[in-house]
Amino acid sequence: MKRSSFNWSTVPFQFPSEEIVDLPTGKSHQLPAIQAQFRSETRADKEVREARRLEVKKVFLNDWNAYKKYAWMKDALMPISGGFRDQFSGWAATLVDSLDTLWILGLREEFDEAVDAVATIDFGNSSSSRVNTFETNIRYLGGLLAAYDLSKREVLRTKAIELGDLLYTAFNTENRMPVDFIEFERAKTGKGLVVESSVVSASPGTLSLEMTRLSQLTGDAKYYDSISRVMDVFYRGQNQTLLPGLWPTYVSMSSQDVTTGSRYTLGGCADSLYEYLPKEHALLGGRELKYEMMSKGFLETAKNNLLFRPMIPDNESILIASSASVSTTGEVTLDEETEHLSCYLGGVYALSGRLFDNPEYIRIARKLTLGCVYGYLSFPTGMMPERLNMVACKSFEDCEWDKKRFEEERRKRPERKDHLPLGFTTAKDPRYILRPEAIESVFIMYRVTGKRVWQDLGWRMFTAIANGTKTEHGTHAAVQDVTRAAKALPQEDYMESFWLAETLKYFYLLFSTPDIISLDDYVLNTEAHPFLRVG
Fold first, then answer.
1. What are 338's strand-pairing partners?
2. 3-state secondary structure of 308
3. Cα–Cα distances in Å, from 34 out to 144, 174, 190, 363, 518?
4. Which end of the chain has less neighbouring CB within 10 Å, N or C?
């Protein structure tokens, strides 16, 4: 193994932590089982499932080989031109992000080759002068930790520690809150970094799982200490906002202000902050009560304020997650807008329904997940756009299709497009960029309920995505407009690392036996990296 050219553990912090907060100890709470009790499958069902699983594996292997051929050790493949991009510091993001997928798919030779490559990554040099804390944490650190948890290859743990020590410098600030971007060379000197005045809430709120798991694996509490202080700020402010239970989309970690703001969302910019609350509860074995309290607080407020039933022609009872503005008097005005990123929420409600023994959350999870599936099946390409608007019903129960009202609401939208299916007033961003959030929730619903219908829905989604994003070279690329059918859809020359790390992994797990990455044994981070739950 090649050590990085700089030892981040030796940085002399200007602002060290004066007293380390240890991992919570004591006996783990007996958390409820998440997964359903699965019955034996028939031979015919097994044959169908296996055929689907192998088809997903085939697509993955084809794109992995293209990455190896054209973009090896680079951050991302350009699947049309055969080029590459280095947008995440040049540490081979796609390779690191895909490590655990290689293992789960049983591709041991490819995994061994990838691990050998990871051993040569130099976290002492970066292709950019500023390192994105959030992306480095979820893609790189998450990928290394999960691959170690699965394979126990010591080199992966060693590289995770190297990178963890780099990320730890993000907390070398006067108030011990993390910076959004690490000034790479300054961080090496130990001089304090300056916390940005305003960041999206997901950025500081999506560090807990990775830093907690690193402390669990190393016995060094400094990583957990760093995020514990951050989450204490969110905990103290949760019920002090204009919408108690939720935090505004933008927060100020420089002033530790997570309460000021009138814009609220469950989607992009805030999504993984909420996702990590019940998952951190599970990873810590229920030993830290604040994560259960924060989870329930956000789930209840979201249910009562930011979810809506859309008016659609067949009157199907589905739910959509929206953004909203909140007045100083607490009046909530929904945007009636959702995005693909919000589709994670069905899975979070399903996990929480099991963890907190709340059947209502499972019912909400089903309707939210079906809402995103509806977003796929309604469009002629079988893929859901990045961002769209619908018309909210008067209530969850009172929801008859009213074409006149729909037309009136659609005319109010300057971004309206008349070719969209009835029920959709806009597709503000008509792209599909290989995102995983919808299949993530479909997978979780399958594991939580054991109902095969989720596999069948997932297969329809996979077929549409695999065909619609396929390039003339057999690789897969983002699609610029999924709202219009065409023999050859307009594509963007880019393949996000999460296509291999998340999207195809979730499809593969959907068609695997339920003991593979059991949700009773693992917690998956926001990049679908499985961390082993400890007793």
1. 388
2. strand
3. 25, 41, 43, 15, 9
4. C
**β-bridge mates for residue 308, sequence order:** 320
Cα-based distances in Å from 371 to 324, 365, 411? 18, 10, 23
**Residue 493, by phi and psi: left (phi above 0), alpha (psi -120 to 50) or beta?**
beta
State the alpha helices, DSSP H only, in 356-503. 359-377, 403-411, 437-449, 453-468, 498
Q: Which long-range contacts (CB under 8 A, 24 or more apart) does 326-329 make?
A: 326/242, 326/243, 326/262, 326/263, 326/264, 327/242, 327/262, 328/242, 328/262
Which pTM does this prediction carry? 0.98
Amino acid identity at 306: L
CA distances to 17, 286, 324, 447, 523 from 213, rounded to whole Å, are 19, 14, 34, 23, 10
User: pLDDT tens, 357-374?
Assistant: 999 999 999 999 999 999
348 closest CA partner among 237, 399, 272:
272
**What integer is the mean pLDDT of 372-393?**
98
Contact between 268 and 322 under an 8 Å Cβ cutoff? The reply is no
CB 59 within 8 A of CB 382: no
State yes or no: pLDDT of 1 exceeds 90. no
Distance CA 241, CA 232 (A): 15
Report the pLDDT averaged over residues 180-184: 98
Cβ(191)–Cβ(169) under 8 Å? no
Amino acid at site 265:
T
